[in-house]
């Protein structure tokens, strides 16, 4: 994989090149911008990939790294890159000398099962999906004839946290709002906005004063905050770009808040408060009220759960959350919908029994 670092005012790029059966670093310095360094690295990787992938076979870990360096790395954010590096490590551990043509569905399923022994289902699915994308690419390029990832099932023997721990009940939510609505702390303001909007931390942190419309009582989600790079980035998906309507009484309260110069919510560093800082504030309030302990992202689940409990249409909830597909909303909150379905069933049977 390519790596980049800055020396003084110039950037340096480094790529791994295979020479006589062993890998050697090829480094070039003096680039004025990171983009120039990235373009050089891509050119080097292209030369390397033409020497190896054109043979339509090779060590799967090496081919994966080359695919990542050319098609993924330049486009991904810092946090997402970590998942691809993880997959690379897994491939080198499980199949250090295996060629792409030597892998079949059974091998892939065994690898997924092994990884699933010590990781939660969501992590296993993430790893499986990344590797599946590479396999589909390999099929499209005629490196292999069959997509051996097609029928792979996600397996995990490690349980995820109980879903009930991820959102507040209505009485807990009311206590939190009452406790926090008069606080002047920036982190408190972020928590309150998340409760009423269902926005992600990265979306709340990226808000500027211009994203608040006090005439229409809305906020405009059009970017997100990349904490690792300390910069704005695109939202998670295209559908994440959205206008969220908020209660007039809440927006009247927001109008009284003091916004930062660049970001709506600024800490003493001039940057948005970190996710850790906001979570610390939230945890302090929840402990004080003896409420269920959730994370800032749990406020998003709380928002959706509250709306569903009030019989708000699932399609609207999905749009409000910025989900790419209503099926994402259905799968995420299936446990709540099942609970509500049971209540509706009991109400139906009671009504029919009274005929």
Automatic annotation (TrEMBL):
PROSITE patterns hit by this protein: TYR_RECOMBINASE
UniProt-listed Gene3D superfamilies: 1.10.150.130, Intergrase catalytic core
Keywords: DNA integration, DNA recombination, DNA-binding
MF (Gene Ontology): DNA binding
SUPFAM superfamilies according to UniProt: DNA breaking-rejoining enzymes
Short name of any one Pfam family annotated for the protein: Arm-DNA-bind_4
Transmembrane helix listed as a keyword: no
GO BP annotations listed: DNA integration; DNA recombination
CDD domains hit by this protein: INT_ICEBs1_C_like
Keyword Transmembrane helix: no
Tyr recombinase domain: residues covered: 163-347
Family recorded in the similarity comment: Belongs to the 'phage' integrase family.
PANTHER family in alphabetical order: PROPHAGE INTEGRASE, PROPHAGE INTEGRASE INTS-RELATED
Protein name: Site-specific recombinase, phage integrase family
Organism per entry: Leuconostoc mesenteroides subsp. cremoris ATCC 19254
